[in-house]
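Task: complex structure prediction.
Instruction: return structure tokens for all chains below.
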Amino acid sequence: MSFFNLIFAPGFFASAPVQTALVIGSAAAIVSALIGVFTVLRGQSFAGHALSDISSAGGSVAFLLGISALWGFLGVAVLAAGALELAGLRRSKERDLVTGIVLGAGLGLTALLLHLDIGTRSSGGAAISVMFGSIFAVPASMIVPMLGVSGLAVLMMGLIYRPLLLTSLDPNLASAQGVRVSSIGLLHLLILSLAVTLSAMTIGAILSTALLIGPAAAAVQIAHRPGRALLLAGLFGLIATWGGVLLAYDSYTWTPGQAWPVSFFITSLVSLIYVAARLWAKRPVARRTAEA
Amino acid sequence: MSTLTETLNVSALSVAFPGRQVLKDVSFSLMPGEVCGLIGSNGSGKTTLLRTILGLQAATSGAVHLNGAVGYVPQKIAFDMDMPLRARDVVGLGLDGNRFGLPLPSLGKRRKVEAMLRAVGAEAFADQRVGDLSGGQQQRVLIAHAMIRRPRLLLLDEPLANLDVRAVADIVGLLHRFARDEGVTVLVSAHDMNPLLGVMDRIVYLAQGRAATGKTEEVVRTEVLSRLYGHHIDVIRVHGRVLVIAAGAADEIPIAIEKHPVHVCEIP
Ligand SMILES: Nc1ncnc2c1ncn2[C@@H]1O[C@H](COP(=O)(O)OP(=O)(O)O)[C@@H](O)[C@H]1O
Ligand SMILES: [Mg+2]
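Output:
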């Protein structure tokens, strides 16, 4: 076996499921990493995590209705984002409490729906697929709608890039400059729910938060300017996703007949990248330098 | 006095929050190039007054008239250590942070940012992350952020809080220069007026929701402040500092006051 074959198990590039996985995985990774930078800076990681988990209810509904999970994830994530914004809470403690409660309710609903799924369609795979993803099972016909959702998310981000950055820096500075801080907050949550939807399709509802937070958190450790932070986050997300798809494919040859889950590899790589970034960044401890 | 040349006119302004009247009938006006101290203890309404002038807080009655653009430095911004923004990025956002769409590289913008960084003495740390800067350095960056659109009025909310003595003097000097050299009207809030005494043309002294306004010597007097607080206040001038001291137990003093003991000067 050549070295090349050791890395890329035979048939990797020719496999149609792999090609689809790489396309939608890349789109999900990039969109999640980009919006994730703002989510991390705004200290809304918990809201991102909650939206991911809650979207599982949508995935389960879709299973029950026999439509693509994409629409289920999308519908529920957008609704949940709206609900969180409607609560309109300014104090972060209150916000976390309400987020936690909405999260609990959403997951409870998922429990019921998955139970019904299993009962009616005797598909025990539903739970695994909704929660932990099934990137190799996504039909090629989903490529276009998923790229459409990605395009929409990137377009919205480009549109509100500067006000979003300013608001994330400090809402008071932003509102003094005439930025409508609450509208920007709502748009941020909407883009977040698009990203969560894409990632849920890729690595599952429960794990999609990994692609959202990990690459972004690693990038802001290293980059000193916003454009580079976005670039780096996208790159990290891509590396984790491509690496994960490759390793999962290769794992067929490790334990013959049974591949390991892609989600396991992607989330592991994300964690490794974050740790590496922390070590790399290790900025000097004496940060508050003396007055110049 | 011609009202046409005033940068800011606040007339009979009242502001209330549910169940609490914060400002009652506050009036004053500021001319170009004036430095005005907005002095009052914690909770006296300084932030509320500045936010009302900016239009971020609704008044219950009264009016605010502005002549020209306004720059604003909010109270205590704690920049996140992880914020991937250099000092120059923050200053740049002061110019176009409210615009939609992606920023295109622009030579004009770069020059403006560079000039502003120079004006506040921030060139040396322009490429550092804002979260890594000292308190005084961050204030300079925020002042540059507020000044880059060349406002006629600059509002600053407690910019001297938590700075060391040297940084306080630097920031006060910087504000004085903007006022003197460029005719910018500066309204700066503080709970201690002493660092501003050398540059303050006027004072708006807040207590019990009301304001005493005028030249510093006219306002910071025993009779005026006693009337404002509603009980006896002593104003003591010592070693070029002003101490405002209320009679009564220390913990019921409505302090806008020097909290530290005065050091006796050593005689050589
Ligand atoms: N949004 C608000 N809602 C209710 N009360 C407020 C609000 N903002 C300020 N206050 C109250 O108004 C008073 C003045 O506050 P503030 O203007 O922040 O004072 P200062 O800046 O002088 O410390 C305080 O008693 C404060 O509790
Ligand atoms: Mg205040």
